[in-house]
Amino acid sequence: MVLKRIELNGFKSFADKTEILLSPGVTVIVGPNGSGKSNVSDAIRWVLGEQSARSLRGSKMEDVIFAGSERRKPVGMAEVSIHLDNDQGKLPVEYREVLVTRRVYRSGESDYLLNRSTCRLRDIHELFADTGLGREGISIIGQGRVDEVLSSRPEERRAFIEEAAGIVKYRNRKNDALKK
Ligand code: ATP
Ligand code: MG
């Protein structure tokens, strides 16, 4: 599974539509302090269903919408899309290219789309469970996360191991079944 493209529109400092193309190999984003590097990784976590405004370094979800600058008015909507190559079928859908989109409006209204069709947040969670890429995924390691793993409580550490072992989706299904 390869991340091929990220599109941002109205997300944090990306007021205009911005496309980031990732070629095969390692991609490094460099830039001065405050230029929006971390906003790119926030965008990836957000589109994958991050629900905590705080972990996106804001206080409410509306904070992901471009808030205006000296020269630009604020915008009314933030949208992020990621294109993933699913050639190897790691994601349990038939598409060879998977496009995940999330939008949020200032009114609070929000949508998730999978290959341009509306879906639920739950569908996004299911799609990425056990791939390491989900909202709580282990493939995005923020500053301080390494320390967090080392100092986490046993049950938190267990969650990392379960994700890596690929059994999260079974645990979720079991919990659902027990609720019914
Ligand atoms: P550093 O090198 O310090 O880690 P960085 O390149 O990671 O910097 P970011 O943290 O990604 O920078 O970007 C911070 C910038 O994004 C700030 O200038 C902040 O004003 C801007 N920003 C964040 N949210 C919004 C928003 N909703 N609207 C407009 N600008 C925003
Ligand atoms: Mg940063």
The portion of residues forming beta strands comes to 15-25%
Please give the share of residues in helix.
25-40%
Largest sheet entry = 6 strands, antiparallel
Radius of gyration: 17 Å
What is the β-strand count? Answer: 6
Shape call: globular
Distance between the termini: 34 Å
The chain-level mean pLDDT equals 91
- Flag low-confidence runs: none
Bound molecules: adenosine-5'-triphosphate, magnesium ion
Largest beta sheet: strand ordering: 2-1-3-4-5-6
Number of helices: 5
Order of helices and strands: EEHEEEEHHHH
Summing up helix and strand content along with how strands pair, one would put the structural category as alpha+beta
Write the layout of secondary structure elements.
Blueprint: E1 2-9, E2 18-21, H1 37-47, E3 77-85, E4 97-105, E5 110-114, E6 117-119, H2 121-128, H3 145-151, H4 154-165, H5 168-179
Antiparallel strand pairs: 1-2, 1-3, 3-4, 4-5, 5-6
The structure holds adenosine-5'-triphosphate (ATP) and magnesium ion (MG).
Magnesium ion binds at residues 37-38.
Structure commentary:
It is found in: Cytoplasm. Belongs to the SMC family. This is Chromosome partition protein Smc. ATP binds at residues 32-39. With 180 residues, this protein is α+β, with helices and mostly antiparallel strands. It has 5 helices and 6 strands, in the order E-E-H-E-E-E-E-H-H-H-H. It has helices at residues 37-47, 121-128, 145-151, 154-165, 168-179; strands at 2-9, 18-21, 77-85, 97-105, 110-114, 117-119. Strands 2-1-3-4-5-6 form a 6-stranded antiparallel beta sheet. A hairpin with an 8-residue loop joins strand 1 and strand 2. The protein starts with a strand and ends with a helix. Bound molecules: adenosine-5'-triphosphate and magnesium ion (MG). Adenosine-5'-triphosphate (ATP) binds at residues 12-13, 31, 33-39, 63, 65-67. The site of adenosine-5'-triphosphate has 14 residues, from helix 1.
